[in-house]
Design brief:
With 220 residues, the protein is α+β, with helices and mostly antiparallel strands. It has one domain (13-124, 171-219): Phenylalanyl-tRNA Synthetase, Chain B, domain 3, CATH 3.50.40. It has 6 helices and 11 strands. The protein has helices at 7-12, 33-49, 59-70, 81-90, 100-112, 196-214, and strands at residues 4-5, 18-24, 116-120, 129-132, 138-139, 148-149, 155-158, 163-166, 170-171, 183-189, 217-219. A 5-stranded mixed beta sheet has the order 1-4-7-8-9. Strands 3-10-2-11 form a 4-stranded antiparallel beta sheet, with helices on one face. β8 and β9 (170-171) form a beta hairpin. The protein is globular, with a radius of gyration of 17 Å. It starts with a strand and ends with a strand.
């Protein structure tokens, strides 16, 4: 399953790159002792690598912040996902524990500096399409008590029935990863200015972590 782009998205953002990977036969659990041990190591490495006051000027994070400003999102309020994870670590806040698959790809995002998304593949209907939202479209994001009505113009990813993400920072509740997920679609969320080599590195890291802690095989 390949993500398609509308002509309007391609015209406005010709350098936008998004990678994906489909992993079959994953086993999602609530927690894993091995993953919890790995978390502690990753957190310590993150604390040594970054300084909180300088985080916004890390080149990768700066590129995502610039893109957020361009599409009308204030990155000081809605932070790019990878930066938000690093910031939580540096502030001494616990990282969210959702399930082994979500936690695994969150740590891939933490290490690669690239936002990642994951969807229950069997909840997606048809080929996903990135496009601009229409005014009044509704989106039910993870953790939202009621659907949000979009203003129009937001970058969204939709399947043939519904919106599955507001790109590149919020995923749909209807396609979220659960303990029943056995096929996952990973999305490596690029923005203009981030080279494909960096995105490929994030993809390899995400596949490594997901298969290490949840098993499964990548469909080439």
């Amino acid at each position: 399953m390949n993500l398609k782009f509308s002509e309007e998205i391609r015209d406005r953002f010709p350098d936008l790159r998004v990678l994906s990977a489909k992993i079959l036969g994953v086993n999602v659990e609530r927690q894993s002792a091995e993953l919890e041990h790995f978390k502690k190591k990753a957190i310590e490495e993150t604390k040594k690598k970054y300084e909180l006051e300088e985080l916004k000027d890390v080149p990768t994070f700066r590129t995502y912040r610039d893109f957020f400003w361009e599409i009308g999102i204030d990155p000081t309020k809605t932070r790019p996902a990878a930066e938000a994870l690093v910031r939580r670590v540096l502030q001494g806040k616990p990282l969210p524990t959702i399930n082994t698959l979500v936690d695994a790809y969150n740590f891939a995002s933490l290490r690669s500096e690239i936002p990642l998304a994951a969807f229950d593949y069997q909840s997606i209907k048809g080929e996903p399409l990135m496009r601009f939202a229409s005014e009044g479209e509704e989106f039910s994001g993870i953790g939202m008590k009621k659907p949000a009505e979009l203003n129009g113009g937001e970058i969204v990813v939709a399947d043939s029935e519904k919106l599955i993400a507001i790109y590149p920072y919020r995923d749909s509740d209807e396609t979220k990863i659960t303990l029943d997920t056995n096929i996952v679609l990973l999305m490596i969320c690029g923005v203009p200015g981030v080279e494909e080599e960096i995105l490929n590195g994030a993809k390899r890291t995400a596949i490594d972590y997901v298969t290490r802690f949840c098993g499964g095989e990548v469909e080439e």
